[in-house]
């Protein structure tokens, strides 16, 4: 009942307003096509939304370009095993071409003849003769004259009033320029004749070749110098 009463009071309050509207006459209204405006607005917003969607869409990731691979390396062919050599007959010596050429007797004869001529000219490669040991056990070689001494080079050192034949021997160390040094008396005949002493004192003038061993000249090696005297004269017979 209370509800109905409230509705009735509301209707009564609206009655004067309705009466006023009836007295004022007919009112005109303008209808607006909301649907058309809404469609135009949606059409305007559609491209914008598409652009936004395109901007928000992640960029497509392009695959990397293919990498060119190097050409395959051709492997060398496998080694071919040499054919087995036929067995050699027994008692056969295999020689190289050089060894076979060295056995040529005609060439060996020419080589020997050439070596003899070289030795006669004083330029041979023959080793010097070994004749003992030096002061400290060094190898001692027979001396070979580079320039034979003259008689007047020894006359000053000869013993006074010396007569008769004899010999003297000294050992010296070779030095550059075919000279000798550190000479020592080795022996003499007759004993006490003073010939080895005279030879030692005159040795600073001697010109002696260094010993030759294996084709090399050994400067600094020790040599033995033998000198023969005849009737008091200073004539050398052999080194």
UniProtKB/TrEMBL annotation:
UniProt entry keywords in alphabetical sequence: Signal
Biased composition annotated in UniProt, kind: Low complexity: 112-121
Leader sequence segment: 1-21
UniProt protein name: TonB C-terminal domain-containing protein
Species of provenance: Sphingomonas sanxanigenens DSM 19645 = NX02
Cytoplasm among keywords: no
Disordered: region residues: 36-93, 105-136
Biased composition (Pro residues): 61-90
């Amino acid at each position: 009942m209370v509800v109905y009463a409230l509705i009735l009071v509301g209707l009564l309050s609206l009655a004067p307003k309705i009466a006023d509207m009836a007295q004022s006459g007919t009112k005109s209204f303008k209808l607006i096509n909301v649907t058309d405006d809404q469609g135009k607005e949606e059409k305007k917003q559609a491209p914008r939304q598409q652009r936004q969607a395109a901007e928000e869409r992640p960029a497509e990731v392009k695959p990397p370009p293919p990498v060119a691979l190097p050409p395959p390396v051709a492997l060398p062919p496998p080694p071919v095993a040499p054919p087995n050599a036929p067995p050699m007959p027994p008692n056969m010596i295999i020689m190289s071409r050089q060894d076979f050429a060295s056995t040529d007797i005609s060439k060996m004869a020419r080589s020997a003849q050439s070596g003899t001529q070289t030795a006669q000219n004083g330029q041979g490669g023959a080793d010097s003769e070994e004749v003992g040991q030096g002061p400290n056990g060094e190898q001692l070689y027979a001396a070979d004259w580079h320039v034979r001494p003259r008689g007047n080079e020894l006359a000053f050192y000869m013993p006074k009033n010396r007569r008769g034949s004899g010999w003297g021997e000294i050992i010296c160390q070779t030095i550059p320029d075919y000279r000798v040094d550190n000479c020592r008396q080795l022996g003499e005949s007759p004993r006490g004749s003073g010939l080895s002493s005279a030879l030692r004192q005159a040795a600073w003038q001697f010109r002696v070749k260094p010993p030759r061993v294996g084709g090399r000249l050994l400067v600094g090696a020790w040599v033995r110098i033998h000198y023969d005297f005849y009737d008091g004269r200073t004539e050398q017979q052999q080194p």
